């Protein structure tokens, strides 16, 4: 058989010939081999029988493709931007908050971002993993009625989805969109905080804590080795905005002071959310109490005087002693907690003891402030459930240790060097207490 073209190309001979009646005379399928110029026929080989794999994720099983079963999200789902699940939620697993999907209230979605409906459905399925505390009817009611709580919780949910599928742009867009709406509502509530009713105060305090979860989450992921490199940490940065992610945390303490009239009801509300209705009083409410005693080594190393203020006093002074003492008191309590739990509220309480003055010391890379914050990061590394700050804690804990090591603190003369050597040993042991 020959082919010609309008451009009078040289006539080309096909590398193989096909007889028109060949296939009709053969009882079974045969395949033409295209290797080389000589054509030949070979038998079609049937696919070897195999058993079906039923342990992959839902998306891979539906498409009947092999799943590498990497958790929390397989590579195929990451590449295609899907939410990876290894089991479908049962109808009985859907809580009462599922009614949120049909309640007609304002719940906008970001253009080109993950829809609010998808965020709410993800919150229904993964509530304990996202918030690290149980569902609460009071909180569900606040979610439905309060714009600040709703946008704040959806921002955390979007952050969690982005954490599971870090390469999906839609999740990042939704996270920034919900966070911006939450911050607008947060600023509006701050402007009228003295006239808020009890529910408004609860919504404000609760949202302030959750917004810090979003702020602490790294923009990258645990799959990005460059983001987890200690040398990429703010510790080694010269940017003037390197601590902007701490802005919300620095405002927690003044917020709590300004709402001191509602302190008792706020403690009961947070206790109900984080520990259930039967545990309104718990030991962590006394975190930062001046009556608690610091480890003698810490007091000597940081040259802290004996406290002379009454228990619970929160007087604003410029004393470096006070700036350091309050976070250290919380660390004294935190290191006694069982490593099995995430202790979300305990971590938020540490944030409430770190104010703008401490942040200034961090910005100036004061070795005492760096040790305190790095030690807290080390304790956070012990709490396996703290997804929202695990990557930052691991990275910055190592970064601060490298920085402190570069200062040669243990080589300082006399007692100061000996104390710093002991403090660095405690720092190294923080994740393993």
Helices and strands, with pairings:
Elements: E1 2-3, E2 12-13, E3 30-33, E4 40-43, H1 58-63, H2 75-80, H3 116-131, H4 137-145, H5 147-164, H6 169-191, H7 198-216, H8 247-250, H9 252-258, H10 263-275, H11 296-301, H12 320-334, H13 344-352, H14 356-363, H15 367-382, H16 390-406, H17 414-429
Antiparallel strand pairs: 1-2, 3-4
Helix pairs in contact: 3-5, 4-5, 5-6, 5-7, 6-7, 7-10, 12-13, 12-15, 14-15, 15-16, 15-17
What structural class should be given to the helix and strand makeup?
Answer: mainly alpha
Distance between the termini: 82 Å
Which segments are poorly predicted (pLDDT under 50) over 5 or more consecutive residues? 1-35, 89-104, 280-290, 308-318
Query: Taking all residues together, what is the mean pLDDT?
Result: 76
Taken together, the total number of domains comes to: 3
Assign an overall shape.
Answer: globular
Biggest sheet architecture: 2 strands, antiparallel
Secondary structure: helix percent: 40-55%
Number of strands: 4
The secondary-structure element order is EEEEHHHHHHHHHHHHHHHHH
- The total of helices stands at 17
Regarding quaternary structure, how should these chains be classified?
single chain
Spatial strand order of the main sheet:
1-2
Q: Indicate the radius of gyration in whole angstroms.
A: 30 Å
Strand content: under 5%
Structure description:
With 433 residues, the protein is mainly α. The chain folds into 3 domains: 2-43, no CATH class; 58-248, no CATH class; 282-432. 48% of the residues lie in helices and 3% in strands. The protein contains 17 helices and 4 strands. It has helices at 58-63, 75-80, 116-131, 137-145, 147-164, 169-191, 198-216, 247-250, 252-258, 263-275, 296-301, 320-334, 344-352, 356-363, 367-382, 390-406, 414-429, and strands spanning 2-3, 12-13, 30-33, 40-43. It has a two-stranded antiparallel sheet with strand order 1-2. It has a two-stranded antiparallel sheet with strand order 3-4. A hairpin with a 6-residue loop joins strand 3 and strand 4. The longest helix has 23 residues, at 169-191. The chain starts with a strand and ends with a helix. Mean pLDDT is 76; it is low at 1-35, 89-104, 280-290 and 308-318.
């Amino acid at each position: 058989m020959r082919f010609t073209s309008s451009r009078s190309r040289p006539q080309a001979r096909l590398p193989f010939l096909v007889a028109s009646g060949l296939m009709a005379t053969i009882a079974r399928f045969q395949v033409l081999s295209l290797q080389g110029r000589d054509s030949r026929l070979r038998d079609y080989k049937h696919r070897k029988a195999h058993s079906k794999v039923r342990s992959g994720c839902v998306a891979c099983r539906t498409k009947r493709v092999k799943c590498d079963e990497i958790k929390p999200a397989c590579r195929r789902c990451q590449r295609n931007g899907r939410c990876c699940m290894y089991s479908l939620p049962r109808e009985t697993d859907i809580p009462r908050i599922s009614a949120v999907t049909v309640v007609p209230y304002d719940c906008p979605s970001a253009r080109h971002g993950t829809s609010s409906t998808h965020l709410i459905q993800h919150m229904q399925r993964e509530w304990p993993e996202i918030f690290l505390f149980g569902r609460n009817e009071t909180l569900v009611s606040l979610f439905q009625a309060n714009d600040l709580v709703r946008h704040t919780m959806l921002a955390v949910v979007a952050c969690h989805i982005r954490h599971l599928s870090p390469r999906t742009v839609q999740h990042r867009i939704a996270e920034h969109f919900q966070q911006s709406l939450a911050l607008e509502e947060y600023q509006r509530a701050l402007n009228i905080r003295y006239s808020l009713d009890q529910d408004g105060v609860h919504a404000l305090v609760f949202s302030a804590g959750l917004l810090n979860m979003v702020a602490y989450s790294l923009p990258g992921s645990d799959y990005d080795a460059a983001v987890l490199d200690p040398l990429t940490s703010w510790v080694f940065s010269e940017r003037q905005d390197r601590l902007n992610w701490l802005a919300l945390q620095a405002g927690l303490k003044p917020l709590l002071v300004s709402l001191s009239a509602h302190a008792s009801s706020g403690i009961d509300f947070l206790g109900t959310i984080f520990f259930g209705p039967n545990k309104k009083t718990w030991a962590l409410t006394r975190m930062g109490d001046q009556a608690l005693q610091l480890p003698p080594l810490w007091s000597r190393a940081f040259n802290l005087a004996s406290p002379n203020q009454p228990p619970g006093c929160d007087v604003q002074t410029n004393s470096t002693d006070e700036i350091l003492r309050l976070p250290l008191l919380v660390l004294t309590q935190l290191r006694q907690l069982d490593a099995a739990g995430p202790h979300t509220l305990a971590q938020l309480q540490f944030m409430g003891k770190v104010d703008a003055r401490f942040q200034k010391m961090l910005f100036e890379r004061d070795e005492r402030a760096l040790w305190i914050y790095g030690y807290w990061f080390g304790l956070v590394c012990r709490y396996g459930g703290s997804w929202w700050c695990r990557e930052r804690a691991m990275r910055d804990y190592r970064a601060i240790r490298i920085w402190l090591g570069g200062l040669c603190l243990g080589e300082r003369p006399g007692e100061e060097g000996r104390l710093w050597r002991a403090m660095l040993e405690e720092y190294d042991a923080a994740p393993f207490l």
